[in-house]
C-alpha cells in the first residue's frame, strides 16, 4: 500500500471539530490515520468476502476484477451508485444493458444505506467526469454482479455529518450515528493513540498490562461508588472509582511497572462532560520520584500524539498550586492566553474607597484585578484607560493611583479592568471565573484568544495534602486521595498544622482541563494509619489489607492516571466527551439506546434480599 503526499493535507481536514465539519472526507479517513500512526500497514481485506475496500482503489488498479462490500451512500439517476465503507467512497456504474437487468434491479431498488456486495472491473472515468475531491475520483467500477446483503428501512436521520440531529436521537440510534465520518474518525484515532501508548509503555519501558477487578469493596473518601448486590444478605460489592488500591498492591507484589486501560465508575449524578463509567490510562511504578513520573508522561504523550498535530514540546511547564490560584484563580489554568490576575492591593493602601478599605483591613484581604484586552467591546466599562474613566468609583481614585494601576495592569485604550476586593483565594477564584467568561465573550466577538490548534500542557504541583471538608470545614479531606504522600519538607506539619502540609500530588492540565493526576504514595504503614485514622477520621478496618501489605516490605512507589476520554476529546476538538465514547450514557446517566438502567421484577430481586421502596409520587405514577 502506498500513501500519496496529498493525504497529509487531507488529514489536516480530518481533525476539524464536529461542529465545523461541513463535508465528510471519507476517502482519506482510515488510510491517513494508519499513515500517521503505524509502522506496518494493516491488511484490511484479510478473511473477508471482498477483495478491496471502497476507499483504496486508484488508477493503478485499472482493469482489475474486484469485489466490494459497503453501504449505498447515494444513487444518481439510476446510473451511478456511491458505495461507502469505513475506508472511503467509490463510484459504481449500474449496468444498463438487458442482460444485466437483474443487477440493475437490485442496485436501483435497494434503499439508501442498504448494504450490498458488488463485483466488477475497475475502469477509468470518462474524460471530464473525474472528481478531484474524491481519492477514488479517477476510477469507477463497472458492475457485473450484485447482491443485496441487507436492505435498509426508513432511517430516523440521514447518515451525513452536516445533517443536524439532536444528541438524544444520536444516542438512541447510536449504531447509525457511528456510521458518521466524525464518529469513525474519533474512535479510530482513539484506538491508534491507545495502541501507541501500549507500545510505549510495554515495549519501550517494560510496563506490564494487568487487569484488576471491577467487583470490589467500598473505598473511603472520594467519589460516590456504584453498588452491586450480592446473594449474601446485606452484602454489596462496589465498582471501583479507580484501580488505586490494586495498583499499589501490585507494587508490593514486586510487579514494578504496571499499567492498564482501566474502566472506572463514579456515581456522581449528572454533571456536564462526566460519565458514570469512563476510562483511565492507569499507571504505577516502584522506585520513582515525582520528576520520574512527569518525564514518563511527557514521553508517553509525545510518542502517542497524532502526527498531523504540532508535536508535543517537552518538558511541560510547571506551576505550583499556590501560583496557579494566585495567577489564574483555578488549579487548572488555561495557559493559552494571558489576562492574568494581578495583585493591586498596594495601589489602594491609602484609599478612601470604602469597600476597598474594608477588604484590605481584614486578614488575607486583597484587591485583585484582571485586564480584558479590548474589553470595552463586550462589557459596560468599569475602569478604562483613558482620562474619563467610566466607573462609579473613578472619582475616588487619585491620579497617582490611576497611573500606577495603568502601569501594573499594562492597560491600553479600550481595555477593561475588572477589580475585586476580598479574601485572597475567594477574590482569585472569582476573577478566574470572570477571566474565562470574558474569554468566551471576546471569542464570540471574533477575537482569537485560544488558538484551536494549540495544545498547552501544564503541570500543577505542590497541592495541599488536605482541604477543609465542604460540608464541615473543621474536618479535613484529602485533596487527591488518602494514599498520597506528604511533601518531604512538610512531614513535621502533619503533627502540628496538617492544613499547611503540602503533598507530592501532581495534576496534568491541558488547555484548562485536568487530564491527569497522581502522586507519590505513602509506603509506610504507620504514617498511612495516622493519616487515615487520626487526620481523616476514617475507619481503618476497611483498609486493613492495604495497611498490612505496606508492612511487608512495600517499595517506595508512585503513579498517575490520565483521563482518556477527556484527552481524546481535546485532541479531536470534540464538543463533548460523549463524542469520543462508542456507547456513552446521556447527561442523566441513561443509555438511551437500550433504556438502562431498567426495572427488575420483584422475584428477580429476591435472591439478593432486596425490595424496592418506591418514592410516593413514582408509586402513584406506576398505578396509572
Ligand atoms: N487513582 C487516582 C485517580 O483516579 C490517580 C492516581 O493517583 O494515580 O485520580
UniProtKB/TrEMBL annotation:
Aminoacyl-transfer RNA synthetases class-II family profile domain: residues covered: 187-584
Any one GO molecular-function label of the UniProt entry: nucleic acid binding
UniProtKB keywords: Aminoacyl-tRNA synthetase, ATP-binding, Ligase, Nucleotide-binding, Protein biosynthesis
Spans through the membrane: none
One GO cellular component term: mitochondrion
PROSITE patterns (alphabetical): AA_TRNA_LIGASE_II
Pfam families in UniProt: tRNA-synt_2 (PF00152), tRNA_anti-codon (PF01336)
UniProt-listed PANTHER family: ASPARTATE--TRNA LIGASE, MITOCHONDRIAL (PTHR22594:SF5), ASPARTYL/LYSYL-TRNA SYNTHETASE (PTHR22594)
Protein name per Swiss-Prot or TrEMBL: Aspartyl-tRNA synthetase 2, mitochondrial
Organism, scientific name: Piliocolobus tephrosceles
Amino acid at each position: 500500500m502506498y500513501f500519496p503526499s496529498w493525504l497529509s493535507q487531507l488529514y489536516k481536514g480530518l481533525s476539524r471539530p464536529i461542529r465545523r465539519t461541513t463535508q465528510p472526507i471519507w476517502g482519506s479517513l482510515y488510510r491517513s490515520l494508519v499513515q500517521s500512526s503505524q509502522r506496518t500497514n494493516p491488511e484490511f481485506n484479510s478473511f473477508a468476502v471482498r477483495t478491496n475496500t471502497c476507499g483504496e482503489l486508484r488508477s493503478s488498479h485499472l482493469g482489475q476484477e474486484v469485489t466490494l462490500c459497503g453501504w449505498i451512500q447515494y444513487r444518481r439517476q439510476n446510473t451511478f451508485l456511491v458505495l461507502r465503507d469505513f475506508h472511503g467512497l467509490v463510484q459504481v456504474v449500474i449496468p444498463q444493458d438487458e442482460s444485466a437487468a437483474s443487477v440493475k434491479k437490485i442496485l436501483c431498488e435497494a434503499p439508501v444505506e442498504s448494504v450490498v456486495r458488488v463485483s466488477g472491473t475497475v475502469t477509468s472515468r470518462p474524460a471530464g467526469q473525474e472528481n478531484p475531491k474524491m481519492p477514488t475520483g479517477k476510477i469507477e467500477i463497472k458492475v457485473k454482479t450484485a447482491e443485496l446483503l441487507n436492505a435498509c428501512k426508513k432511517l430516523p436521520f440521514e447518515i451525513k455529518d452536516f445533517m443536524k440531529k439532536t444528541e438524544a436521537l444520536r444516542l438512541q440510534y447510536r449504531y447509525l450515528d457511528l456510521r458518521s465520518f466524525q464518529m469513525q474518525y474519533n474512535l479510530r484515532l482513539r484506538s491508534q493513540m491507545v495502541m501507541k501508548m501500549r507500545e510505549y509503555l510495554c515495549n519501550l519501558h517494560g510496563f506490564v498490562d494487568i487487569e484488576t477487578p471491577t467487583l470490589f469493596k467500598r473505598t473511603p473518601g472520594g467519589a460516590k461508588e456504584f453498588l452491586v448486590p450480592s446473594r449474601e444478605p446485606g452484602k454489596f460489592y462496589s465498582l471501583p472509582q479507580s484501580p488505586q488500591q490494586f495498583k499499589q498492591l501490585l507494587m508490593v507484589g514486586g510487579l514494578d511497572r504496571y499499567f492498564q486501560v482501566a474502566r472506572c465508575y463514579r456515581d456522581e449524578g449528572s454533571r456536564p462532560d462526566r460519565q458514570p463509567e469512563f476510562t483511565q490510562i492507569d499507571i504505577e511504578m516502584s522506585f520513582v520520584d515525582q520528576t520520574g513520573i512527569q518525564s514518563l508522561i511527557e514521553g508517553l504523550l509525545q510518542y502517542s500524539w497524532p502526527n498531523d498535530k504540532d508535536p508535543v514540546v517537552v518538558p511541560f511547564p510547571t506551576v505550583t498550586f499556590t501560583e496557579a490560584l494566585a495567577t489564574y484563580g483555578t488549579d487548572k489554568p488555561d495557559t493559552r492566553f494571558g489576562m492574568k490576575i494581578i495583585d493591586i492591593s498596594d495601589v489602594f493602601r491609602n484609599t478612601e474607597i470604602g469597600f476597598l478599605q474594608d477588604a484590605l483591613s481584614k486578614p488575607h484581604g486583597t484587591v485583585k484585578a484582571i485586564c480584558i484586552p479590548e474589553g470595552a467591546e463586550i462589557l459596560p466599562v468599569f475602569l478604562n484607560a483613558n482620562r474619563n474613566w467610566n466607573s462609579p468609583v473613578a472619582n475616588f481614585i487619585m491620579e497617582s493611583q490611576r497611573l500606577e494601576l495603568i502601569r501594573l495592569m499594562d492597560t491600553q485604550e479600550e481595555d477593561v479592568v475588572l477589580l475585586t476586593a476580598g479574601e485572597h483565594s475567594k477574590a482569585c477564584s472569582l476573577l478566574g471565573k470572570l477571566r474565562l467568561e470574558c474569554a468566551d465573550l471576546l471569542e464570540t466577538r471574533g477575537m482569537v484568544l485560544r488558538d484551536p490548534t494549540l495544545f498547552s500542557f501544564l503541570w500543577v504541583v505542590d497541592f495541599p495534602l488536605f482541604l477543609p471538608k465542604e460540608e464541615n470545614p473543621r474536618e479535613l479531606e484529602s485533596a487527591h486521595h488518602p494514599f498520597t504522600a506528604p511533601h518531604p519538607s512538610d512531614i513535621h506539619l502533619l503533627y502540628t498544622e496538617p492544613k499547611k502540609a503540602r503533598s507530592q500530588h501532581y495534576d496534568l492540565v491541558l488547555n484548562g482541563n485536568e487530564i491527569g493526576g497522581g502522586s507519590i504514595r505513602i509506603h509506610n504503614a504507620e504514617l498511612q494509619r495516622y493519616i487515615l485514622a487520626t487526620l481523616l477520621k476514617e475507619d481503618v478496618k476497611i483498609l486493613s489489607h492495604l495497611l498490612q501489605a505496606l508492612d511487608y516490605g512495600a517499595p517506595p512507589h508512585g503513579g498517575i492516571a490520565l483521563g482518556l476520554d477527556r484527552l481524546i476529546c481535546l485532541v479531536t476538538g470534540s464538543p463533548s466527551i460523549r463524542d469520543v465514547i462508542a456507547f456513552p450514557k446521556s447527561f442523566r446517566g441513561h443509555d438511551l439506546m437500550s433504556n438502562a438502567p431498567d426495572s427488575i421484577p420483584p422475584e428477580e430481586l429476591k435472591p439478593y434480599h432486596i425490595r424496592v421502596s418506591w418514592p410516593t409520587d413514582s408509586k402513584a405514577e406506576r398505578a396509572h
